[in-house]
Automatic annotation (TrEMBL):
The organism of origin for this protein: Actinokineospora terrae
Name of the protein in question: Cell division protein ZapE
Annotated GO biological process: cell division
Keywords linked to the UniProt accession: ATP-binding, Cell cycle, Cell division, Nucleotide-binding
This protein's record includes keyword Translocase: no
One Pfam family this sequence matches: AFG1_ATPase
InterPro entries (UniProt xref): ATPase_AFG1-like, P-loop_NTPase
Lineage start: Bacteria, Bacillati, Actinomycetota, Actinomycetes, Pseudonocardiales
Length: 341
């Protein structure tokens, strides 16, 4: 009998949160020389050069910073302390971010934006600053400000860390001075957003979504009977009613979604349908990201994954997040076609 994600209640302690600040499995072995720039998009080759130069500067500047601290008790490298990779989904920004992380010696940390904010919540602000302030590098994937509280928290956190000499590399689908736009009263927090933006050098990465370059569309949804049979035939897989899983996600912090699917070989979702609210949709986005990080194939019945987000959602402030989730879920659905029992 197949297992169910809704039966899992993952718990992640504070120390485990700190220990897990490393790239996810999909990006555990990537390097700059494994990134294949699209020859039609010169910004991609330029981004590799910029990221490699940033990693070299962080590594070299850290040696100088250590000497300054020993002699003068302070000091930080010249230039902006942050590198910000901006571009559409599927252009390899996470690959480049993980490559920066791999190229820089420790101590260092890597996490998604939601993992970082959850870490601060679990440890407390001062303890989080203390844990991270001796790092050479903090890498933040999927950087986004979805509410005013996060704006204030992250601005303050990154100000303290960069003032302590920590370099920061981040990826996002939104320019740093446009964070939060269309989602909350960003103009009321303009000073904080501009202060955050001033700490980053922006590198643009353009191009088509590499996940679907020259590949066929995702396979269509299967019947409920076929979905059950495929789940039964695939070891270490799960099968869940889509609505029940969405309700279960509401009871878990998004930082626990990774552990929710750890050890799962394939996820089967029965009765997929378009989502009805932004809160539910954003949780599904977070789950899709964790499934993609772990390269876990997805099989669905009901509606295709390309119809998860309504036209109104795709016109709103979270449009790029939703499109990224569709791109990743389509790729995972395609991967599912290669599964054997």
């Amino acid at each position: 009998m197949s297992a169910h994600l809704v039966d899992r209640e993952p718990v992640v302690g504070a120390e485990e949160l700190v220990a897990e600040l490393v790239p996810p499995p999909r990006f555990g072995v990537v390097r700059f020389d494994t990134y294949l720039p699209d020859p039609q998009e010169p910004s991609q080759a330029a981004a590799v050069t910029a990221c490699a130069a940033f990693a070299d500067r962080v590594t070299g500047a850290d040696k100088g910073r250590s000497l300054l601290r020993r002699v003068f008790g302070g000091g930080k490298p010249d230039g902006k302390p942050g590198l910000y990779l901006d571009g559409g989904f599927g252009v390899g920004k996470t690959h480049l971010l993980a490559s920066v992380w791999h190229a820089v010696p420790g101590p260092k940390a890597y996490g998604t934006f939601v993992e970082l904010t959850n870490l601060v919540g679990a440890l407390g602000f001062r303890e989080a600053v203390a844990r991270l302030s001796d790092h050479r590098l903090l890498a933040i994937d999927e950087f986004e400000l979805d509410d005013p509280g996060d704006t204030m928290l992250v601005t303050r956190l990154l100000a303290e860390l960069t003032d302590a000499g920590v370099s920061v590399a981040a990826t996002s689908n939104t320019l740093p001075d446009k964070l939060g736009e269309g989602r909350f009263a960003a103009d009321e927090f303009l000073r904080e957003i501009q202060a955050l933006s001033a700490r980053f050098t922006v590198v643009r990465v353009d191009g088509p979504d590499y996940r679907h370059r020259g590949l066929p569309d995702a396979p269509p949804p299967v019947s409920d009977a076929e979905l059950a049979a495929r789940a039964e035939a695939t070891a270490e897989s799960t099968v869940d009613d889509f609505g029940a899983l969405c309700a279960h996600l509401a009871r878990l912090h998004p930082s626990r979604y990774g552990k929710l699917v750890d050890g799962v070989r394939a996820v089967h979702l029965r009765g997929v349908r378009p989502l009805s609210g932004q809160d539910v949709a954003l949780r599904v986005v977070a789950l899709a990201d964790r499934l993609y990080d772990r390269a876990i194939p997805v099989v669905v019945s009901g509606a295709p994954v390309s119809e998860l987000f309504t036209p109104d959602m795709l016109r709103g402030g979270y449009r790029k997040k939703y499109l990224r989730a569709v791109s990743r879920l389509v790729a995972l659905s395609r991967d599912a076609a290669t599964l054997t029992g």
